[in-house]
Q: What sequence folds into this?
C-alpha cells in the first residue's frame, strides 16, 4: 500500500513517447511543477496532453511545449503562450479546443465510466462539426465523448502514504477529476503524512485512484497575471 516515490524522476521514469497525459491546474495554480520538470528532463516526446491550458512560455506545461515534447493539446484556454500560437499556426502542434465546462465534464465522465454525454454547449459552432446533434425537449445538444489518459499528473496540498489527497482552494479545479480518469495517477504534494493521519471527511481524492505519490522539494507557485490595486496618490504639500 505504500505508494511513495523517492523523487519525481523515479515517478515518471516509465512514461513512454506518445503517451496521453492529463495535467492538473488552472492557469499556473495547482500545477504539478516537479513532475512536469522531471518529464522535461527525461525528454519524453510525442505527448498528447489534456489540460485546461498549456502554461506560459517559461512556466508549467510551457516548458514541455517549448522543448517540442508535445504533439497534441486538448485544452480550453491558450492565450498566455506565444510558443503555443507559433506551433499551432505553423501546423507543428495539433490542437483540440474544448469549451471549459465541456472539458471538465469529459474528464469527469472518463473517471466515472460514462462513455459520452449530450450538452447544448457548442451547438451551431465548429465545436459540433462532425458530431451527432440531438434534440432534447426542444434544446439541440451535441454528443461529446469522455476523456481518459495513460497518466495523470496532479498537485495536492497534503497526501498520505496510501495516496489519499487533500487540495486547497483553486487547486481543486481539474486535479480531482483527472486523478480518477487515468490508468496511472501520479500525485505530488507539499506535505506527506502517514496513512490514517488525514480526516476522512476532508479527503478529496481517495487513494484508490492514486498509484504513485511524492513530496515536491520546492514550489515556485508563479502568478500568471499579477494585478494590483494602484497605490493612492500621496497628497502634495502646499
A:
Amino acid at each position: 500500500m505504500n505508494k511513495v516515490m523517492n523523487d519525481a524522476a523515479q515517478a515518471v521514469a516509465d512514461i513512454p513517447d506518445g503517451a496521453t497525459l492529463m495535467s492538473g491546474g488552472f492557469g499556473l495554480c495547482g500545477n504539478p511543477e516537479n513532475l512536469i520538470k522531471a518529464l522535461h528532463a527525461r525528454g519524453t516526446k510525442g505527448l498528447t496532453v489534456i489540460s485546461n491550458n498549456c502554461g506560459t512560455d517559461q512556466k508549467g506545461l510551457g516548458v514541455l511545449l517549448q522543448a517540442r515534447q508535445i504533439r497534441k493539446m486538448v485544452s480550453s484556454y491558450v492565450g498566455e503562450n506565444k510558443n503555443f500560437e507559433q506551433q499551432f499556426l505553423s501546423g507543428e502542434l495539433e490542437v483540440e479546443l474544448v469549451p471549459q465546462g465541456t472539458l471538465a465534464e469529459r474528464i469527469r465522465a472518463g473517471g466515472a465510466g460514462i462513455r459520452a454525454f449530450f450538452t447544448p454547449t457548442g451547438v451551431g459552432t465548429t465545436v459540433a462539426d462532425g458530431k451527432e446533434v440531438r434534440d432534447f425537449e426542444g434544446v439541440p445538444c451535441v454528443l461529446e465523448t469522455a476523456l481518459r489518459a495513460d497518466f495523470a499528473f496532479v498537485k495536492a496540498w497534503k497526501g498520505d502514504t496510501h495516496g489519499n489527497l487533500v487540495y486547497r482552494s483553486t487547486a481543486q479545479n481539474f486535479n480531482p477529476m483527472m486523478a480518477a480518469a487515468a490508468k496511472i495517477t501520479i500525485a505530488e504534494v507539499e506535505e506527506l503524512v502517514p496513512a490514517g493521519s488525514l480526516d476522512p471527511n476532508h479527503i478529496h481524492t481517495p487513494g484508490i485512484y492514486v498509484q504513485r505519490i511524492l513530496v515536491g522539494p520546492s514550489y515556485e507557485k508563479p502568478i500568471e497575471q499579477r494585478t494590483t490595486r494602484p497605490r493612492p496618490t500621496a497628497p502634495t504639500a502646499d
In short: The longest helix spans residues 100-112.
